[in-house]
Predict the structure of GreA/GreB family elongation factor.
Amino acid sequence: MRLRAVASEVSRRWPRRLTLRSRPRARKLKCRLTSISPNYGHPFNSLILNDEYVLGVKTASKKRLREIDRRLRFLTKRIEAARVVDPTTQTNTEQVFFGATITYANSRNEEKTVTIVGIDEANLEKGRISWIAPIARALMKAYEGDTVQLRIPGGIETLEIIEIRYEAVE
């Protein structure tokens, strides 16, 4: 009941001042809680606050959409530039190249087997390492029986290549 009285009084005092044309010129309101007493305002104030809320939601969703579009463009370019490499067609099988499966022994005589794959396929649990990983770079262009030096944070580790094979990656 009281709200209707306030609304009718506002419409009598400002009959034509509250038009849609004046709304875009409204400035942002700096809201700060100064007391616990009720905050009274006229209906135009609530329209401004509502518009700011709606615009904030729309801005956030537009920003998320831009992020998705950016990621989509990135992935599209990656797919267009991708080349499929079949390791079984490698002609020089005595040397380590992309797609090789290598068994090596480290300085503690632990044997490990890794496959050199692309960046997106790397998975250490399955023994697949990226071609840009430090260990892959150390192993590249080495022959079976060679020893290579791998720089690690604790110093330099020597790796001995036991076996090189080229098989289809699942």
